[in-house]
Amino acid sequence: MDLLTGLPLLARRLGADYYGVADLGSAEEFVSAQGREGIARFPRAVVMGIVLLGTVVDLLPKRADPAAAVLYHHTAYDVVNQALDQIGLQIANTLRREGFQALPVPASKRTSDEKIAGIFSQKLAAHLAGLGWIGKSCLLVTTDPGPRVRWVTVLTDAPLAPTGAPMEPQCGDCTACMNTCPVHAFTGRLFRKDGPREARFDAALCDRYFKDLEKSGRPPVCGMCLFICPHGRQKRRSPGK
Q1: Which residues contact 235 (CB under 8 A, 6 or more apart)?
Q2: Triad 173, 177, 179: Cα angle to 5°
Q3: Mind listing the pLDDT tens digit for each residue in 34-81?
Q4: Claim: this prediction has a pTM higher than 0.85
Q5: Which of 12, 35, 67, 78 is deepest in the core (most CB within 10 A)?
Q6: In whole angstroms, how far apart are CA 150 and each of 5, 52, 221?
Q7: C-alpha–C-alpha distance, residues 74 and 82, integer Å
Q8: Where are the domains of the chain?
Q9: Which residues contact 1 (CB under 8 A, 6 or more apart)?
Q10: For 6-19, what is each residue's pLDDT tens digit?
Q11: Which residues contact 138 (CB under 8 A, 6 or more apart)?
């Protein structure tokens, strides 16, 4: 297979809306700190994304209603994450058959309760691949559906060319995600690869909010930072158009 053209075509055929390749060399220290040497030994990442349905994301303001919360969580998390993991596995196996090492990173699996993080940052890979920027919400923001995309990554040693360079933040003076957060977990500082996440986002505060929702008997669903971002708010079509 010609990986340059074959991999993105395969990813699209499997259901991915986004495809990119990131050179991880500039982020080796960060990758190593989060996933240790076994992860940092891979020089590149293939990252793919699926756009969340607007009709599903639009349920978030009604998340106090258990029916809306369950529908959102099932579709936007369970179903999409499973689809992404299947795409990642297929891409990894394709790279293996071509003679390269490949390690699929689960779309959404926490591996450290202490760090409240997975083994590798999907959004960092998408950022380095030129697919978007990391916004004030600490979400990967694309120019079209904004942060309404979920990601999966395959780490590899295949000699794939990067698909782009990190995008400059386009958040401007917007503070919508900061204002809507029920626990005010965001500081408004922009992403820096040499800066700690704590400078931008209190992950522990966010995590406690979800646990408190569960304790109170409410569905552990929020996502308002994803819903409110103006880069993801779709324009409504006029009737008949």
Answers
A1: none
A2: 85
A3: 877 678 899 999 999 999 999 999 999 999 999 999 999 999 999 999
A4: yes
A5: 35
A6: 23, 7, 16
A7: 11
A8: 3-228
A9: 7, 94, 98
A10: 999 999 999 999 99
A11: 123, 186, 191, 197, 200, 201
